[in-house]
Amino acid sequence: MRETVHVPLGDRAYDVLIGTGLLTSAGDLIAPLLRRPRVAIITDETVAPLHLATLEKALDGAGITHSALTLPAGEATKSWGPLSQSVEWLLAEKIERNDAVIAFGGGVIGDLVGFAAAILRRGVRYIQIPTTLLAQVDSSVGGKTAINAPQGKNLIGAFHQPSLVLADVEALGTLTRRDFLAGYGEVMKYGLLGDAGFFEWLEANAPAMADGDVEKRIHAVKRSVQMKADIVARDETEQGDRALLNLGHTFCHALENATGYSDRLLHGEGVAIGCAMAADLSSRLGLSPQEDPSRVQAHLHEMGMRARLSDIPGDLPDAAALLELMGQDKKVIDGKLRFILMRGIGNAFVTSDVASEAVLDVIRDAA
Ligand code: GLY
Fold this sequence. Notes:
Elements: E1 2-7, E2 14-19, H1 26-30, E3 38-44, H2 47-61, E4 65-71, H3 80-92, E5 100-105, H4 107-119, E6 125-130, H5 133-139, E7 144-149, E8 152-159, E9 164-168, H6 177-194, H7 196-210, H8 214-234, H9 249-258, H10 267-284, H11 291-302, H12 319-326, E10 339-342, E11 348-351, H13 356-366
Parallel strand pairs: 2-9, 3-4, 3-5, 5-6, 6-9
Antiparallel strand pairs: 1-2, 7-8, 10-11
Helix pairs in contact: 3-4, 5-6, 5-8, 6-7, 6-8, 6-10, 7-8, 9-10, 9-12, 10-11, 10-13, 12-13
Bound molecules: glycine.
């Protein structure tokens, strides 16, 4: 079972394949892109024992030689040390300008390897093989690559589009439920930001999808990627519409900062809570129907997900301190906080015109 979403970006256009059996046929799928049958794979210590042998066998089957670098798993890998290690390893492996690098893992590996590919020899091609739901529906598509700085997440990076994305939903079978549901926060985001019908579909089908239904997983990943591709095609470098993809993220980034980017709150969990808070803010401002916030809350509860600030273990700073943390978001323009709000579910827009008092009320009520 295989679906294709095309990302139409002129001479940087590429396909995202979504389905089953993509890992086992990765060699044949990648071969047409290569100028010589040689790739370098960068992965992490979680993914390598689970899936690297499968990928290597698929490459062998297509006569593609390969070598692999396995980095420690986790957010700390998105930093200068592993970046220079990756670039120097790629140079030692004699990866040339016309070769391709494979980013094999979740969002951390995708962002790091994409950035390494962007700067190696002033840019080499790379292929994303995302193994988490979050990476399949969001970070592997659209060409945002980055590492983190002490000043904040993703502050050092480049736009560099992949040449191919292989999203094999079978790889999602090895995720913990918590990691799957965190990725689901980004899936729900797409329904809320641009497709009320998809949100309705998720209300009916997401529980079965979380339980392992492969067809529903393919549908949800495909619809999410299609929406992302449409937005990226309109606004590749985030001058306008691409900011819609940050629905829930202004709240989320403050919460991640307040919890020290730790296991207390995964990024996708923060996105889900942030989306619920954005729905609340939209309704308070009279932009969306009063029932929308409770609908989002009810769906998160049904999914067994965190929906409120009080669902985050441990203490959080007070509302004023959280608002202050939002002000440090890199999406702040001219000192003004930018929010993605909704004129009803499925109809998001970007605004800087939100009174702090309304935001404080939302934070206090979510506690
Ligand atoms: N994850 C947001 C974006 O790709 O723009």
